[in-house]
Task: structure prediction
Amino acid sequence: MKLPFTQLFRSRRRYSLQMLAVLGLLPVLLALGGALLFSKASLDEVERSVANNLQLAAKADNRLQQVLLHQLPMELYLNELSSLITRFRSEFELLVLDPDRDDSAIIALHREMQQNYDRLPGSTPHLPEALKLHLMESSGIALELLEELLETSGSNDRQRLFRNSFIPLDDVFVSIEEINSQQIQINQDAQAALQQASLRSQNALSELRLKILRTEQLLLGVVVMILLVNLICWGAMGRVLRSRLALLAEFSQQVVAGDARRPPFSSTDSTGRLAVTLAQMGQRIRALLKEASHQAEMAEQARAEAEALAFYDPLTGLENRRSFNQRLDRAIALVHRGSARYALMYLDLDNFKHINDSLGHDVGDQLLIETARRLQQCIRQSDSLARLGGDEFGMIVQSASSGCSMMAERILQKLSVPLQIAEQSLIISCSIGIAYVRIDGDDATTLQKHADLALYKAKAMGRNNYQFFSPELHALALHRMRLLSELRQTLSEGGFCLHYQPKYCLESGEIRGLEALIRWPHPTEGMVSPAQFIPLAEETGLISELGNWVLRQACRDIRRMSAGKVALPVAVNLSGRQFYDGKLVDTVQLILREYGVDPCLLELEVTETVLIDDIDASINLLQGLRDLGVSIAIDDFGMGFSSLNYLKRLPIDVLKIDRNFVMHVADDSKDRAIVNTIVELAHRLDLKVVAEGIETLEQQAYLSRIGCDIGQGYLLARPDALDCLSLNSPVEIQ
Result:
């Protein structure tokens, strides 16, 4: 007999893979569904039975726990009550037999029984109400007998009361025994209920194990049947699938060649749908190629838009540096043709970094946007405005020289109006540098460099002003760049030297110390003033390295003087950057140890403007230096924002009066008042006072008269090399 599957595949009719899968899995699914329904019904029944039994067992266990929880306190209470009644009977009997006996034991017993009676309701919260009333009544009888005994004083009355108390007390004992027996019965009932519930749960679990075993056997049979059916079905499906794949491969080649016709299968079949999909893919690819061409055109358009956006600043909406440079080139070309006159203006906001650091970049961005808006209000249609980067703006102005001045004045006035940003009222200013096209430069690079030099001069002139470029600025810039280059080289080669200016006691004329002053012996320009190269060193960050060199050279000279039996303290100035570099104390300690110098021979001078930047950090730093043993002096005292509170807290030794006060002390009453106050204040704070810049006998005489300790200036001695100074002879004080 031929199998149904064999007859099916030998038929000329084409059957789909889905039909074969359904024919193979249908009996399996029916058998599995029946097994699952049977198993589910059995398991649900057992689950309900187990749940009911567990619920009953839980109730019984809860009841037993409650009984056991309150049985022990109840037994303790009843035992205590029995003990009290027994003691009461004994004490009562002794009291009757001995009339002279003290009532203190009865009183104590009454107090215990009263306490026992008072806590009875709280000790038996779960006792049945009838038993609780019975127990309350029994305890009350014993308590009433006690109270009656305490109220009875005669011997006969007490004997009569003793005889009458036997029956009530016996009743109390009987009540206690009844309560005990009832409590025991409740306990036994609860235990029996728990045992019954446990037995029923065991029976239910046994039934559950049996039904689970039957279910496992049923499922095992179903699994075996599934395996057999799957083996037969997959064998047949593999044969059909191979023939379908061959036809599908042939159709795919037709699709690739572009001459695909009708798919070889029905579209409802999986392979038929795949063939249809291949045909659709060919059409889709041709559509995608067309779409890709369209997208390329759009990308080209977007690139053009992005290139246009590249010429504008995204924050302010102004032109950027790239667009500005192109406009500048066109303006230069127009000037060369003689058709117009243009000037280049560079604008830079003053102290913008401080606003960014203190108020945040969001406020800084809003400030830039508002600045751009105000600048747009100042320019004309023929002018150009751009943001060149950061807080720097550029303008190309079509105007004569007077027009540029009026434009710059208008800008300064416009920006001086306070701004309200983030609940902050901000007042800003800018510095402006101006260079004329063709007059100050024929190309964009030269014009921008010259406008920047004029801007730098405006910054140096105190900010909030405008400056025009001049050839002298270019010469100064070249000279500055050359000095900067030579400064680095001189520092690396050790080409600096120290001159020392003596400090004298204004009373005796004896020398009391020296101040180290750095000098630069330039090979072509002679002795370069510190006012020229110190600012360069501060701008480039070389000031710390230069200051450390001065410290080392001064300590080297102190050691040399000490070897020559001349021990004079030497004062060294500290810059602000050197003071706050975080390594000053360690550096000073290392240099002192390196040269073996006594710390008391080194004096460090710091200006008060440096100290008040961070007064707490300054105090800690100065204290660290004083702990090394060096002296601390405040230089240029009176020129900063002096505060007596700060002066009181600072660990210092010397105040140096600024030369601006000493200069007019002989002929200006206000300067005399300031100097007098400083001297008196310093002496009251136990500080020494040094007056610097003494250049006339009148100045020296007045300072000596008011008690100034030490003087320094050209009148007494000029700075010079150490070997050229006379350190042993006093100066003549008239």
The longest helix spans residues 166-257.
